[in-house]
Amino acid sequence: MSQVEERLGAMGLAVPPVAAPVAAYVPAVEHGGLVYTSGQLPFIEGALPETGKVGAEVPRDDAIEFAAFAGLNALAAIKSVIGDLDRVTRVVKVTVYVASAPDFTEQPLVANGVSEMLGLAFGDAGTHVRAAVGVAVLPLDSPVEVDLIVAYE
Description:
This protein is α+β, with helices and mostly antiparallel strands. It has a single domain, classed as CATH 3.30.1330.40. Helices cover 31% and strands 24% of the residues. It has helices at 3-10, 60-82, 107-122, and strands at residues 28-31, 34-37, 88-99, 129-135, 144-152. A 5-stranded mixed beta sheet has the order 1-2-5-3-4, covered by helices on one side. Helix 1 (3-10) packs across helix 3 and helix 2 packs across helix 3 (107-122). The radius of gyration is 14 Å and the shape is globular.
């Protein structure tokens, strides 16, 4: 088990198996020392824990947790390409999409769910640039979706 996965385990988290794509794409691609993930939903054991808009059907605090789960699914996609998460030298960029009720403006707080998890898992290498984007709807009516770009050696 990698040191990254041990740190996640200490937080009560685990990298799941790679989520099966829901359309015509692959979970992650490596190019030029970077791994780019497709958008990952917060599947837990193959199912979305909640659906709907954050700030309406889905409470903000649940969405924060779901962002972390989506991030774990992105880590699974990365691991499937490079084999060992300890090879990650830097989390470069995180994009978090939040299916938001019209008056919901706390997308950055939702995005903190994945950002904080990555910081704890990777230490200084987990600091990253980020976009937190409010959207009208996401695939399968998911409340959040996350994609990552990481550098590795």
